[in-house]
Write a structure and sequence with these properties.
- By secondary structure, the protein is an alpha/beta fold.
- About 30% of the residues lie in helices and about 25% in strands.
- The chain is built from twelve helices and 14 strands.
- The strands form three sheets. It has a nine-stranded mixed beta sheet.
- Helix 10 crosses helix 11.
- The chain is globular.
- The two termini are about 45 Å apart.
Amino acid sequence: MNKTTSKGGKTMLEILEENGFKRLTPQDLMNLRFEWLIDGFLAKQSLVMLYAQAGSGKSYFALYLSKFLLENGKIRQVFYLDADNGKPTLKGRQVDKFISIPNFEYIAENKPNKYTIFKHLKRSNDLENVLIVIDSVRNFIKDDFNKDNMMIKFFDELQVLRDSGATIIFLHHQPKQIQDENNKLYKGATTFLDSVDEGYFLHKIDIKEYEEFIILVEPQKRRDATKPHAFKINTLKLSFESVDYLKYGENHKAQITLNLVKDILSECDELCQQDLASKIKRKIEQDYIEIVGRNALWKLLDKYKGILWEITYEPQERGGKKKCFTLIKN
């Protein structure tokens, strides 16, 4: 490449390199290995937002997830930065048992310099294979988090930490919701979702109050082919495990519907919507089963596009396109 210009000035590449920008080479990508910490849920060296209403189990989930990843050798160190919860709350959550685990660092401080801590952490040289949890992100933001231009600067700092080797999860909140309804929106600027690799809406289902519950996480961005997941937490056993999402994430009728469609598609390479509808009708009449209504059916199937099946659109001879379904085989 010609390094000089006809006027004797500097090339764009030289100016970029002088200002710390590095040219991407084929080797940079060839040597890069994508790795899941939890398949279909959490990618190594990613920036992730978990958000929900207050009291939905965000902190519990992040705490148990951190313990699981550390004890299973997925990461080498946890830094849990908590500027939200008081020490009596932490005692009630048995945090003492978590911080007794080697390399589980719990920082429970509400210092004035918390607003600039990520700017300073960029200088760290030991971020490789580290998990950073931020609980909650609003406690570390001094500016108006409804304004994109202010939030871009904040997320730039988190992205630098991610690009230096860290996996980062931050907890965030929702606006006040109408009772028994949830619009799955989060507080703040669009930058929150624009700047992360993945954003998850989180929902808790109690099994035994204060003892065992299910955490459902639904991807809202899916940059890395993520899928909805369900996790069971038991606070007596301090256990954390992945469980069947369909069992807890959909009602009984929806579960029957999804499993029925999976069975039908498993017998065919591809089915267009009209043929699929005919087979569904024949099956429910034959087996006397009840599924969701017709309008709800196609919305439900669309929800699991890229998760249970692929949906494509094929042109027809007379114009228009037909919608086709193909089962994703694990």
